[in-house]
Q: What sequence folds into this?
């Protein structure tokens, strides 16, 4: 390896470490203070960097937060990909397993998931860099394709009614988003109300009965 190549690798490693340093600091503050109350200056101070250094890696606070969302979407994508490729389960069994899988994704990082759903429904997406938007769209498309594959399998097996598999995947995502946001709004008013797992499971059960072939 030449000197120039070694220096380039060292520079790339340093950039990755600095990026992780910023993300870790931002995540701590988002948990402690909330997204709205946290500023770029706060993150810079927590990461022991200048505000200018933050902007070398992220366009703005929304862009930074979206990068945390990417980590969660990557986890969801991997889980869904593994589920649809599972050869030992029928399509109906996969749909049953999906209930626990989605709750596990929520439990993996509730705050990031909830704010991801809020970001989807707000103007925040317009504030992201082109690269970040592309990454989010790519991962979201992978998640949807994996869901669609489960329904394609069920249709091919004659277990599900022949609906558009992509549309069925969209409905599952709508159910997941709606259940998380609705149950979270109730929990904020009364922390003892923690019914997401039951609500999500019931919604997917009702959905499953609706698409089963006669």
A:
């Amino acid at each position: 390896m030449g000197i120039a190549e070694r220096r380039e690798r060292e520079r790339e490693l340093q950039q990755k470490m600095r990026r992780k340093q910023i993300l870790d600091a931002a995540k701590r503050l988002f948990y402690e203070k909330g997204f709205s109350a946290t500023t770029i200056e706060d993150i810079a101070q927590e990461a022991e960097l200048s505000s200018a250094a933050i902007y070398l890696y992220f366009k703005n606070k929304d862009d930074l937060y979206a990068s945390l969302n990417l980590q969660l979407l990557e986890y969801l994508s991997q889980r869904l990909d593994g589920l649809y490729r599972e050869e030992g389960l029928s399509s109906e069994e996969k749909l049953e397993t999906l209930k626990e899988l989605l709750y596990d994704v929520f439990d993996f990082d509730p705050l990031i998931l909830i704010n991801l759903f809020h970001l989807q429904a707000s103007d925040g997406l317009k504030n992201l860099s082109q690269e970040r938007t592309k990454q989010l769209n790519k991962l979201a498309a992978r998640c949807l394709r994996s869901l669609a594959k489960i329904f394609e399998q069920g249709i091919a097996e004659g277990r599900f009614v022949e609906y558009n598999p992509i549309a069925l995947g969209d409905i599952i995502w709508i159910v997941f988003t709606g259940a998380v946001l609705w149950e979270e709004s109730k929990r904020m008013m009364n922390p003892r109300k923690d019914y997401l797992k039951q609500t999500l499971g019931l919604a997917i059960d009702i959905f499953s009965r609706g698409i089963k072939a006669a």
